[in-house]
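Re: that backbone. Tokens:
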């Protein structure tokens, strides 16, 4: 298939001692797919995105807060985020997930 990309996400996971490791897997005009790895005890503070996004948990456990709703993060959990939805997360264990952001980028 022309333009296809195949990655072994398990072998790409890198957990820092603290904070966040991210690796862009594919970026196009309308999508961005990034492997995110958070060290145990790390947080990403509340923020929003002007585009829709999906989080698919691959490894570890944590808590995701989406528009005030608390969601348990564990392998296999799929979270859809509408654009402009406030969200944050914290890693209870080393945590890995695929972040897929889609939609046209708003021009300033």
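Recovered sequence:
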């Amino acid at each position: 298939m022309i333009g296809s990309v195949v990655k072994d996400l398990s072998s790409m996971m890198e957990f820092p001692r603290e904070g966040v490791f991210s690796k862009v897997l594919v970026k196009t005009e309308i999508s961005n797919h990034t492997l995110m790895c958070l060290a145990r005890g790390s947080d990403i503070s509340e923020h929003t995105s002007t585009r829709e996004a999906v989080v698919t948990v691959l490894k570890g456990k944590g808590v995701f807060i989406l528009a005030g709703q608390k969601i348990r993060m564990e392998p296999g959990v799929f979270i859809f985020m509408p654009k402009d939805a406030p969200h944050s997360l914290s890693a209870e264990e080393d945590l890995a997930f695929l972040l897929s952001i889609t939609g046209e980028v708003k021009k300033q």
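Residues 29-102 form a domain with the Jelly Rolls fold (CATH 2.60.120.10). The helical segments are 9-12.
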